[in-house]
């Protein structure tokens, strides 16, 4: 099907292709359908969508993610084995960064350390776009490493994730080389406390929406709500960020073997921080898939 060719759009002379209409005609009863469900609605490309519209003009296209994506919500034991391995490799990569990072290195050089360790220890690829960024840019929730240089006495944000057998991981933490100003250290300390609080709130059978409401109320009670952008969790599995999100509007209950990232982000005008670790829901609480770096690190 030419709609699935690479983005460079080769013309593919001499080749023949089947169309969506051909498939419907050949493989469906009476060669017709009234409705077609699309799984992966948010990532379906425009060429695919336009071809469906043009070739099947009388067919209703509907979003069908909720039919298939829930099959990924609850992990099997084999899937959890892959994820545990991915997190273990991520922690080895973080450890190598902490041992080797120095002032004057670029953010890209720091990420090079992580990539070396991921492949060295059996990871098949990154679990997500790895990032290290230092200074004011840390007030962005997500960024990419640049040629900016690492400096002392400043927040350095790491988020490192390995992929094993198709399953992602991520370990995120703020570090510094030398002590931080009191104002920045205070928010980092609170962020870590909020991170532990999030994990404490995750229990089987609990409505996901209530976790978010309880978390937001707790942050507000501590007087830090102005520093909160979002939170506190999203699912992880074959993608580092995947459904289901935990939001105040979430209407599902947490179940055993669901896997989430406790994702704790706070920011001020000139810096930010993220604590991020994985958990798998158990019969009574959670298994921490990563926990080695749930502590403030000043090198």
User: What portion of residues is helical?
Assistant: 25-40%
Q: Mean of the pLDDT scores?
A: 96
Count helical runs.
7
- How far the N terminus sits from the C terminus, by CA atoms, comes to 54 Å
Taken as a percent bin, the fraction of beta residues is 15-25%
In the residues, how many domains can be counted? Answer: 2
Please compute the radius of gyration using only Cα atoms.
22 Å
**Level-2 CATH architecture of the largest domain:** Alpha-Beta Complex
Biggest sheet character: 5 strands, antiparallel
Shape: globular
Number of strands: 13
Could you describe the 3D structure shown?
The longest helix is centred in the N-terminal third of the chain and has 24 residues, at 77-100. This protein folds into two domains: 2-70, no CATH class; 73-298, Creatine Amidinohydrolase (Alpha-Beta Complex). The protein is of the alpha+beta class and 299 residues long. The chain contains seven helices and 13 strands. A five-stranded antiparallel sheet has the order 9-8-10-11-12. A four-stranded mixed sheet has the order 4-5-7-13. Helix 4 packs across helix 5 (107-120) and helix 6 runs antiparallel to helix 7 (208-221). The chain is globular and about 70 Å long.
Quick summary of this structure?
With 299 residues, this protein is of the alpha+beta class. It has two domains: 2-70, no CATH class; 73-298, Creatinase/methionine aminopeptidase superfamily (Creatine Amidinohydrolase, Alpha-Beta Complex). It has helices spanning 20-27, 46-55, 65-68, 77-100, 107-120, 182-201, 208-221; strands at 35-38, 60-63, 125-126, 131-134, 156-160, 162-163, 171-176, 233-235, 242-246, 259-267, 272-281, 286-288, 297-298.
């Amino acid at each position: 099907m030419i709609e699935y060719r690479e983005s460079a759009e080769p013309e593919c002379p001499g080749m023949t292709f089947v169309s969506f209409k051909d498939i419907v005609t050949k493989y469906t009863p009476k060669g017709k359908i009234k409705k077609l469900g699309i799984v992966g609605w948010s990532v379906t490309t425009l060429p695919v969508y336009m071809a469906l519209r043009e070739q099947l003009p009388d067919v209703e296209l509907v979003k069908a993610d909720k039919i298939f994506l829930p099959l990924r919500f609850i992990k099997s034991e084999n899937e959890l084995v892959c994820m545990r391995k991915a997190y273990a490799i991520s922690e080895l990569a973080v450890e190598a960064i902490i041992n080797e990072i120095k002032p004057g290195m670029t953010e890209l050089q720091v990420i090079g350390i992580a990539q070396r360790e991921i492949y060295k220890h059996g990871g098949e690829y990154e679990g997500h776009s790895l990032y290290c960024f230092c200074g004011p840019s840390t007030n962005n929730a997500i960024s990419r490493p640049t040629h900016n240089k690492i400096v002392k006495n400043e927040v350095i944000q790491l988020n490192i994730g390995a992929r094993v057998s198709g399953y992602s991981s991520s370990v995120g933490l703020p570090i510094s080389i030398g002590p931080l100003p009191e104002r920045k250290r205070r928010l980092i300390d609170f962020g870590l406390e909020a991170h532990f609080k999030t994990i404490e709130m995750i229990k089987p059978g609990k409505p996901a929406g209530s976790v978010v409401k309880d978390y937001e109320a707790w942050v507000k009670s501590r007087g830090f709500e102005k520093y909160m952008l979002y939170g506190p969790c999203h699912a992880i599995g074959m993608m580092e960020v995947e459904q289901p999100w935990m939001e105040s509007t979430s209407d599902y209950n947490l179940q055993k073997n669901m896997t989430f990232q406790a994702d704790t982000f706070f920011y001020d005008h000139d810096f930010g921080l993220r604590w991020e670790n994985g958990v798998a829901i158990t019969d009574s609480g959670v298994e921490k898939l990563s926990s080695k770096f749930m502590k403030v690190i000043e090198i």
